[in-house]
Amino acid sequence: MDAIQRQLLEQVADLHGVPSGAYSIRVNGRLDSKASSENITIVQKTDKPGIDIYIAPGTKNESVHIPVVLSQAGIKELVYNDFHIGADCDVVIVAGCGIHNGGDEDSDHSGIHRFVLDKNARVKYVEKHYGDGNGNGKRIMNPTTECELGEGAYMEMETAQIKGVDSTSRTTKAKLDKGATLIVREKLMTHGDQVAETYFEVDMDGEDCSAHLVSRSVAKDRSKQVFTSVMNGNARCNGRSECDAIIMDEASVGAVPQVFANHIDASMVHEAAIGKLAGDQLIKLMTLGLTEQEAEEQIINGFLK
Amino acid sequence: MLELINVSYKTPEGKLIIDNINLKVSERFVAITGPNGSGKSTLAKLIAGIIPASEGKILFNGEDITNMSITERAQKGIGFAFQQPVRFKGLTVLDLISIAAGKRLSQTAACEYLSEVGLCAKEYVNREINSSLSGGELKRIEIAMVNARSTPLTIFDEPEAGIDLWSFNSLIKVFENMYERNKGSIMIISHQERILNIADKIVMLKGGKVDAIGSKDELLPTLLGKGSVSAACYKQGGAE
User: Closest approach of chain A CAs to the CA of B85, in angstroms?
Assistant: First the structure.
């Protein structure tokens, strides 16, 4: 890996080199390196690009890193990563994609991540997107995440896209069995002429399952964002979706929430708030001695923390 | 020392809220009081630079700050505790107290400021300043913040409002400790007799003008005995 690739890796996965435990690092459209551990097996797919990750039942306190970096302009790829997570696991999965585009051609990474969590498995999934480079070529990322949560399974997803991605369309679909819990925290900041779309679809099929989607975003300059969530409460369940956005300059943000209660004991809530930076927040921080710009940075950093 | 010279404020619609006020603040505790709508909060905002004076001059330690921004005045040493504290999604109590102190504080250092306003520091230091906090909790955190600033002049806009179960004696103790530490003037906008009672100087506003100015011994008996509309505002302690 060269210096740019190492820097991208640090941005998206907080890695300064090869991680310990199981990992798979993909660089410029091909597998760069991978390693399995005693309980986590990573197998390269033979019919299409991507990998299968098998986590043995009962695996606890282990992590898997599967970052992708693109530093060569013009690469377009679609990658399939399937996670098979055994019963009673408790693991952390770190994914993420960094694109450096210094050329005129677009770079496009689309990943389809499928998760199947067996009974009582627990997963924390962290995914960061980052782009840089001075080329005219666009940095495009379109991640799709599909999750099936078995009985009593728990999945916490943290996704962040803070800088440098020109266009993104993120789709997350989940199906929840009895007593399963899904928590999604999305952080998004767009600037320039960037466009970001987020689509969530959650089927809450099992009794006493719950889902909580939280999206916090900041749209600067002329960027555009649309947040759509569809939550189907098909059993006794608790569903909640929150979209909270700050718009600045000439940006625009849309929130399209849809909650469906298809069962008498389904409790579904949606909250959406979009607006500019609050004047009283700026004034408060200025009375503490910050300049207007410093106050703005503090508010946004805190909001997206 | 703060000095207001012929200061007036008109709203953009032309309504006169502050009418030619002359005032000097150099004492330990100065209380600003007066009926609702008399211009107390507007006066505080004029001093902090949140609204601009339409006429007149504001001097702080001899320097003309009339045209300075909120930030410049804050950096010169004017602290301001809001009547209605602001909520922030994502920023924690520790973040805000650190910003106020001008440096990243350790949890232990931030805890001292919180303990002083009667909050169990461990429970609060990492909490977000959002709607999960009650009005009373926010108000105390607001006071902890200006305390952390340690400025030569601190303005409190109705600090007693929403203080809930916390006692006035504790609030007064905070003012006294703050003075002991900073030796800076504390200007308190208040209706409460117990707060007026610790003032070295009381300024009574009415209709945007200074109606009376004097020591508590000179003014308190008049204020409490007037039987006027404004006298009804002076409560004998307890939260509003």
Answer: 8
A279 and B CB contact within 8 Å? no
Determine contact: B99 vs chain A, CB below 8 A: yes
Residue B157, strand partner residues: B189
- Residues with Cβ within 8 Å of A249's Cβ and at least 6 positions away in sequence, in order, are A220, A221, A222
**Chain A CB within 8 Å of residue B126 CB:** no
pLDDT band at A114 (very low <50, low <70, confident <90, very high): very high
Residue A210, number of CB atoms within 10 A of its CB? 18
Contact A244 B79 (CB under 8 A): no
The reply to whether A287 touches chain B by the CB within 8 Å rule is yes
A305 at interface of B, judged by CB pairs closer than 8 A: yes
Residue B161 predicted with pLDDT over 50 = yes
**Is the pLDDT score of B235 beyond 60?**
no
Domains along chain B with CATH numbers: 2-85+151-233 (3.40.50.300)
Complex-level ipTM beyond the 0.90 threshold: yes
Report how far residue A239's alpha carbon sits from residue B20's, in angstroms, rounded to the nearest whole number: 58
* pLDDT of B190: 92
The pTM is what?
Answer: 0.84
pLDDT digits 0-9 by tens, A260-304: 999 999 999 999 999 999 999 999 999 999 999 999 999 999 999
Q: Is residue B63 within 8 Å of B54, Cβ to Cβ?
A: no
Q: What are phi and psi of B223, to 5 degrees?
A: -60, -45
Q: Please indicate if any CB of chain A lies within 8 Å of the CB of B113.
A: no
State whether A290 and B71 contact (CB < 8 Å). Answer: yes
pLDDT of residue B164: 64
pLDDT exceeds cutoff 70 at A183: yes
CB contact under 8 A, A298 and B99: yes
Closest to B234 measured CA to CA, from B179, B190, B199, B177: B190
Q: How far is CA B61 from the centre of its chain?
A: 19
For chain B, the 3-state helix, strand and coil shares in percent, each to the nearest 5, are 35, 25, 40
Chain A closest CA to B218's CA: distance in Å? 34
Helix (H) or strand (E) holding A171: strand A167-176
DSSP type of residue B128? B
